[in-house]
Amino acid sequence: MRFLPVGPRTLLVELAGLDETLALFDALLGDPIDGVAEIIPAARTLMVRVAPGFAADGALAATIQARQPAPGTLRAEGPVETVEIPMSYDGEDLADVAAHMNLTVAEVIAAHQAATWQVAFCGFAPGFAYMTGDDPRFDVPRRPAARTRIPAGSVALAARFCGVYPQDTPGGWQLIGTTKVPMWDLSRDPPALLRPGIRARFVEGAAKVHPSAAIPEPQGQPALTVVQTAFPIVFQDEGRPGQGGQGVSASGALDMGAMRRANRAVGNPSDAPVLEITLGPVRLRAERPVTLALTGAGRATLDGQALPTAFALDAEDEVLIPPPASGMRSYLALRGGFDVAPVLGSAATDTLAFVGPQALTAGARLYAANRSAAAIGAPEDQPALPKPGDTVELPVTLGPRADWFTPDMIAQFLSQDWLVTPQSSRVGIRLEGTAVTRNDARELPSEGTETGAIQIPHSGQPVLFLADHPLTGGYPVIATLLPSALDLAGQIPPGARIRFTAAAPFQDIEATP
Q1: CA gyration radius for the chain?
Q2: C-alpha count within 13 angstroms, C-beta hemisphere, residue 204
Q3: Where does residue 159 fall: left (phi above 0), alpha (psi -120 to 50 degrees), or beta otherwise?
Q4: For a surface tag, which of 8, 74, 123, 318 has the fewest beta carbons within 10 Å of its beta carbon?
Q5: What letter would DSSP give residue 41?
Q6: First and final CA of the chain: distance in angstroms?
Q7: Looking at the predicted structure, is the pLDDT value of residue 428 above 80?
Q8: Which three-class secondary structure state does DSSP give residue 404?
């Protein structure tokens, strides 16, 4: 067992293989550790995240180590739910898989149906389950080059896993067939059909598909109408942590501080849903008298006059939010709150996983929840935000995979200023600079990734993960942003530069009593 640093509240536990990982996962669920908020299992790692007020340190590592099952222990057997998945064996790679396994296509189909597949962990996308089988012949390689689009419902193989793509997405697994059974359905409780521990059997045939229940639309007179917006506007709040078992990341506002300031400025609870506005211009029309607050990068104007942080509008007033001179995102709160249906307990829109309310474009109508609100207090100071051309220093913890890079490569990563490219989004900031390239072609088994993780793909150009990042990833993470710097990172615009600073050299976490 090895403990790798991720951040002050997160560590990665690396084990010998999948069986040992799942056995420890079961042990930690059966005998919970005080302060542990979430555990993300993967192929040979557990990412352990603790609640505020707790630390991911040597004491936590020692407690986890004490829970380690005896060598050779497999996950406990008990009552296991089994799901039958009808499918058609019409995948583009079925013949290639048969050739690799030295079987006929018919023999591959028979073997796939005879195998019992069990969900080891979830990740990549909501509802995507990594299933292991009891037939060792199904250890097939990924495709040499990933496809840019794999249709939802595709049944695929890679390494020792079988998976079903819950939505259209890029991917490099071998496609053997398709199913019409939805892997992710918000009208189901829980929405993910396949979850850790569940078993699946595949059968040939058509599936009965039931339509998903529609999310109810607000009724009555709208409070605001989106007249113009340069980029889609999304609802955000504090996100939906704790959904890792279904492959769902937390999402939430990129600048949590600005979101909370906007709510407090109109007397709302600090975690009430707000609108997250990217750059601008945005024009909104009041359909009835409303009180609003705008924080973050933007400054609102009415008839050419600048408005304070909190302001009132009469019916038919149109407020303009021009593109900001600095920063990237603005947060608009409505006194009494927006009437928006939560999804999995949150109104956050996850732009990668398509979880949460739909993004808003011109013509969208926004409704008021009319909840009780407190008295409006004094406006809070807003921090200065970076503009294009600025260089921003961001503090990081080296790891968890800094040991995949030489000391010279780590020095190269830390010593240069990385350009923020226009390809950045809520998923992550794509950076450009002198590439950090590894000489070996090793592949990292998929493992949990934290918000703020800095992956180094084969191109050597880093990607800094933000709130809508994938729950698991397969590229090594050279460093992870400190949580205190996430708000600032979410406000860095294209054209600015980032320099990463590490407080200490990389080293594993030692288990201490």
Answers
A1: 24
A2: 11
A3: left
A4: 74
A5: E
A6: 16
A7: yes
A8: helix
What span, in angstroms and rounded, lies between the C-alpha atoms of 201 and 90? Answer: 17
Alpha carbons within 13 A on the beta-carbon side of 31: 10
pLDDT at 245 over 90: no
Pairing of strands 497-502, 391-398: parallel
* CB under 8 A, 24+ apart: contacts of 371-376: 371/268, 371/272, 371/336, 371/337, 372/336, 373/266, 373/267, 373/268, 373/335, 373/336, 373/337, 374/267, 374/268, 375/267, 376/265, 376/266, 376/267, 376/291, 376/310, 376/335
Contact 48, 1 (CB under 8 A): no
Residue-wise pLDDT tens digits, 292-303:
999 999 999 999
CA distance 329 to 512: 42
- Residue with the two structure tokens 């009041």: 286
* pTM for this entry: 0.91
Q: How far apart are CA 233 and CA 175, in angstroms?
A: 35
Tokens of 8: 């002050």
CA gap 350, 255 in Å, rounded: 15
Name beta bridge partners: 473. Answer: 447
Q: What is the pLDDT of residues 469-479, one digit of tens each?
A: 988 888 999 99
Contact (Cβ atoms closer than 8 angstroms) between residue 392 and residue 326: no
* pLDDT of 212 strictly over 70: no
Encoding tokens for residue 123?
């990740």
Pairing of strands 199-204, 82-87: parallel
The tokens 């990924």 sit on which residue? 142
